Amino acid sequence: MAERRFGVGYALAPKKQRSFIQESLVNLARSRGIDLVRIDTDRSLADQGPFDCVLHKLYGDDWKLQLAEFRVKNPNAVILDAPEAIERLHNRISMLQVVSELKIEHESNTFGIPKQIVIYDKQTLFDRQAWEGLKFPVIAKPLVADGSAKSHKMALVFNHDGLDNLKPPIVLQEFVNHGGVIFKVYVVGEYVKCVKRKSLPDVSEEEKLGSLDGLMSFSQISNLANNERTDDKYYKMMQLDDTEMPPQSFITDIARGLQQAMKLNLFNFDVIRDARFGNRYLIIDINYFPGYAKMPGYETLLTDFFCDIVQKREKDGVESTGLDSYEVLSCDDEVRKL
Ligand SMILES: O=P(O)(O)O[C@@H]1[C@@H](OP(=O)(O)O)[C@H](OP(=O)(O)O)[C@H](O)[C@H](OP(=O)(O)O)[C@H]1OP(=O)(O)O
Ligand SMILES: Nc1ncnc2c1ncn2[C@@H]1O[C@H](COP(=O)(O)OP(=O)(O)O)[C@@H](O)[C@H]1O
Ligand SMILES: [Mg+2]
Ligand SMILES: [Mg+2]
């Protein structure tokens, strides 16, 4: 009998395609029965395929419409992930609301989000009442997180003088000292991996009082080292060696909780450890389909995941949907889980 193969279509921006669709991933997936196929975004998605699974990170109403049409024509294909579920992450307020709703108990650690407010116009920005309970320094973040360079432009604001330069709509979030290290937790289906990255340094009491400009701009601080990030080397170079990791079981519980609440398979979240307490963790950012290729061994991980997805779909006995050209399963049964 011919080997059964599966088609995974991907629709990604050119930069994402370059970083994620590497030959090593394509070859490994192919050897296990998964064909990664580029979706031509200049043509209708519904006219392409057949695909057992569609992997995507594109923005906008037109793309949502295309996915909806595709879903009608191919009800059995898996869309990773549903655009309605991803949309929550395009707004920095709705993104973190889900964290506040999680119910997870852990013997010695707690988690939450930093204090924050949303400002829609300049007038409210200078209204001290709107600020009640929020202390300087704060980080000003664009409300919209739509993947544009603009949506990553942040400012650390030390005092009221710094507010002049801000352009609402923005989120003002209390800056929390965290030892200059951020934990990035990558989730791929059931797999959870936490890594350390360089973050903003702590702000001293003198700096809080003495900053002349009142504001310091920055962007994508944890992504500044673009070179090889095989973790041992990167940790040494960035002097991250000494920072203790958060407990894996705690992080995994949060990841699972977020995954279930958000109904997403592919995301990461940024966590900092509040230096005032040492056992309090704050989630500050959640990203859809992040830079997985930075993780050593991402090819195996993602291939395992694709196999898992298409096998589950087979096992659930969903009727075939014009995907007949793919025959015989060749994925290994094994899927790594933490
Ligand atoms: O490009 P990369 O590999 O640095 O990945 C970016 C992510 O970096 P990370 O994996 O968290 O270190 C990055 O995470 P941060 O927001 O920097 O925490 C975003 O997920 C970014 O996507 P977008 O611009 O928000 O749509 C991601 O960018 P895209 O690759 O999706 O454009
Ligand atoms: N509340 C905070 N306290 C301290 N540092 C923060 C806080 N929020 C963000 N940062 C720092 O700013 C960086 C960018 O913020 P983040 O919300 O992750 O935006 P982006 O989506 O651009 O990654 C983080 O990686 C971290 O270094
Ligand atoms: Mg971030
Ligand atoms: Mg982000």
Molecular structure report:
ATP binds at residues 92, 141, 173-184, 199. With 338 residues, this protein is of the alpha/beta class. The chain folds into 2 domains: 6-81, 3-Layer(aba) Sandwich (Rossmann fold), CATH 3.40.50.11370; 88-288, D-amino Acid Aminotransferase, Chain A, domain 1. It is built from 10 helices and 14 strands. The strands form 3 sheets. Strands 5-14-13-10-11 form a 5-stranded mixed beta sheet. β10 and β11 form a beta hairpin. The structure holds MYO-inositol-(1,3,4,5,6)-pentakisphosphate (5MY), adenosine-5'-diphosphate and magnesium ion (2 copies). Adenosine-5'-diphosphate binds at residues 114, 139, 141, 145, 152, 154, 173-176, 178, 182, 199-200, 220-222, 270, 272, 284-285.
Defining traits:
disordered C terminus; kinase; 5-stranded antiparallel beta sheet; single chain; Rossmann fold; 5-stranded mixed beta sheet; 14 strands; binds adenosine-5'-diphosphate; 338 residues; alpha/beta; ATP binding; 24% strand; binds MYO-inositol-(1,3,4,5,6)-pentakisphosphate; 10 helices; 2 domains; binds magnesium ion; globular; 27% helix; D-amino Acid Aminotransferase, Chain A, domain 1
Summarize the structure.
The protein has 338 residues and is α/β, with parallel strands linked by helices.
Give me the secondary-structure topology.
Blueprint (H helix, E strand, L loop, with lengths): L5 E7 L1 H7 L2 H9 L2 E5 L14 E5 L3 H13 L4 E3 L2 H5 L6 H8 L8 E3 L3 E4 L2 H4 L12 E5 L10 E5 L12 E5 L6 E8 L2 E8 L6 H6 L4 E5 L11 H7 L10 H15 L3 E8 L6 E9 L9 H18 L23
Parallel strand pairs: 1-2, 1-3, 3-4, 5-14
Antiparallel strand pairs: 6-9, 7-8, 7-9, 8-12, 10-11, 10-13, 13-14
Helix pairs in contact: 2-10
MYO-inositol-(1,3,4,5,6)-pentakisphosphate binds next to helix 1, strand 13 and strand 14.
